[in-house]
Design goal:
- By secondary structure, the chain is of the alpha+beta class.
- It has 2 domains: 9-57 and 122-161, PH-domain like, CATH 2.30.29; 59-119.
- Helix content is 41%, strand content 26%.
- It is built from 3 helices and 7 strands.
- It has a 4-stranded antiparallel sheet with strand order 1-2-3-4, covered by helices on one side. A 3-stranded antiparallel sheet has the order 5-6-7, with helices on one face.
- β6 and β7 (132-135) form a beta hairpin.
- α1 packs antiparallel against α2.
- The chain is elongated.
């Protein structure tokens, strides 16, 4: 049996607890939200999209504060347990194991802070249509959101102007985010 052609191409997706994915089709964007076993879908047809709004959020700062605080707390407790275990010859081995486990937790928390910082600023992406402003959920990082707008903008302009090919401006610094109504 011949393979069916792909209708959708995944643009982005995220979420450890809530999965949000963005899919690109020939004439629309599809967002899928799934929590547990429940999925909801929403289509945004290119000819109906008026604008993309990308707003930076404090999500990265909040997660860095949580993981950084956890790293400092577990690191400090590990240091205290390690220093107290030196004075007691009978409790040395179990205390050092506990201190090593706490130090490992501090190291993992620090790596999470580093990873989150290197991923870049977080953002919320919205689509403006004639019916209102709708959240997209994905992408969650500012750089990925700009790449998504840059990729989809020529398709939207093509659908709205009726041109088969709408060239992308060669010297454009930022992607065009507002489209003719």
């Amino acid at each position: 049996m011949p393979k069916r052609p792909k209708i959708y191409e995944k643009i982005s997706g995220r979420g450890p607890l809530r999965f949000t994915r963005l899919w690109l089709a020939a004439d629309h964007l599809l967002t899928s939200f799934s929590i547990g076993g429940v999925e909801t879908y929403q289509r945004f047809y290119f000819h109906k999209i008026e604008a993309f709004i990308i707003r930076t959020t404090a999500r990265r700062l909040i997660w860095n504060a949580i993981f950084g605080g956890l790293a400092l707390l577990t690191g400090a407790i590990a240091l205290v347990v390690w220093s107290l275990s030196k004075g007691h010859a009978t409790r040395t081995q179990p205390d050092r194991v506990i201190a090593a486990i706490l130090a490992g937790m501090a190291g993992i928390s620090f790596l999470l802070v580093l990873f989150n910082t290197l991923c870049g600023p977080t953002c919320a992406v919205f689509v403006q249509t004639a019916t209102g402003l709708k959240p997209m959920g994905a992408p969650g990082r500012y750089r990925k959101a700009l790449q998504m707008v840059e990729r989809v903008s020529p398709l939207i302009l093509s659908a709205q102007t009726g041109n088969a090919e709408t060239p992308t401006p060669a010297g454009a610094e930022a992607p065009v985010a507002t489209f003719p109504a």
